[in-house]
Amino acid sequence: MDLAVAVIVGSAFTAVVNALVKDILTPLVAAFIGQPDFSKLGFTIRSTHFPVGDFVNALITFLLDALVIYYAVVVPLRSIAQRFNPAEPVLALKTCPECLSEIAQDARRCKYCTAVLTRTPGAPT
């Protein structure tokens, strides 16, 4: 059920993003370049015409879609996830002298072999 809802919402969101790119962002690109539609672009080699304009249009649409989706969906969701799930602090590690496992620096007993650990001189208490 969740997958069906995601597909439907994704297709609706794709239509919204495509409309945004077509109606707002492509004319902005055309304002800088001077041509809103690149479908007429092409070149000819030995009487063979290569129409690359549609590819250029599709490439610009893809890049603008990716930018819009990244900055409208990914960046806000990442900041929300970081706010609600902060990163855990990284503990300093040391090696257990008995089993050579990595354990926390402040551990008094190894969690793997249960060996009692002695404090080393100069270690924090």
What does this structure look like?
With 125 residues, the protein is mainly α. The chain folds into two domains: 2-84, Orthogonal Bundle (Non-ribosomal Peptide Synthetase Peptidyl Carrier Protein, Chain A); 89-125, no CATH class. It is built from two helices and four strands, in the order αββαββ. The strands form two sheets. It has a two-stranded antiparallel ribbon. Strand 1 and strand 2 (48-50) form a beta hairpin. Helix 1 (2-33) packs across helix 2. The chain is elongated.
Concise account of the structure shown:
Helix content is 51%, strand content 10%. The protein is built from 2 helices and 4 strands, in the order αββαββ. The strands form 2 sheets. A two-stranded antiparallel ribbon has the order 1-2. Strands 3-4 form a two-stranded antiparallel sheet.
